[in-house]
């Protein structure tokens, strides 16, 4: 079993992510929580292959020092969030107000 077969561990401690998540309207917030619950039950290999979540590297955003790459994934029907992988942890960073802002463009 390789590292990509390990279960994903979620890190929801980023204050910006929390503010974005808690600021969602109730139906969207519930959908986001359902997505996070789903991710928690997946391995990294399952996440990489999941067409609904669409885990994608964001090439247009330069990651901060110490982070290999920033990724986006679909957290609700209309919103994406950003995250990076740190070992078995998915460290969530933001929930975008709309699809285009995830990629640093309007």
Would you give an account of this structure?
- The structure is a single chain.
- Helices cover 27% and strands 22% of the residues.
- The termini are far apart.
- A 5-stranded mixed β-sheet has the order 1-5-4-3-2.
- It is built from 3 helices and 5 strands; from the N terminus they run E-H-H-H-E-E-E-E.
- The chain has 106 residues and is of the alpha+beta class.
- It has helices at residues 15-22, 26-40, 44-49; strands at residues 9-11, 56-57, 71-74, 80-86, 89-95.
| Number of distinct helices | 3
Low-confidence stretches: none
- Secondary structural class: alpha+beta
Radius of gyration: 13 Å
Order of helices and strands: EHHHEEEE
Number of strands: 5
Shape: globular
What fraction, in percent, of the residue positions are helical?
25-40%
Which oligomeric state applies? single chain
Distance between the termini: 41 Å
Content of β-strand: 15-25%
With strands numbered from the N-terminus, the spatial order across the biggest sheet is 1-5-4-3-2
Question: What does the average pLDDT come to?
Answer: 91
Give the total of domains: 1
The main pleated sheet reads as:
5 strands, mixed
């Amino acid at each position: 079993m390789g590292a990509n077969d390990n279960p994903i561990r979620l890190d929801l401690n980023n204050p910006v992510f929390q503010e974005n998540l808690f600021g969602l309207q109730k139906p969207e917030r519930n959908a986001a929580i359902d997505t996070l619950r789903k991710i928690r039950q997946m391995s990294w290999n399952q996440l990489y292959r999941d067409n609904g979540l669409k885990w994608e590297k964001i090439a247009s955003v330069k990651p901060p020092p110490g982070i290999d790459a920033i990724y986006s994934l679909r957290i609700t029907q209309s919103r994406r969030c950003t995250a990076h992988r740190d070992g078995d942890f998915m460290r969530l960073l933001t929930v975008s107000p709309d699809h285009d802002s995830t990629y640093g463009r309007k």
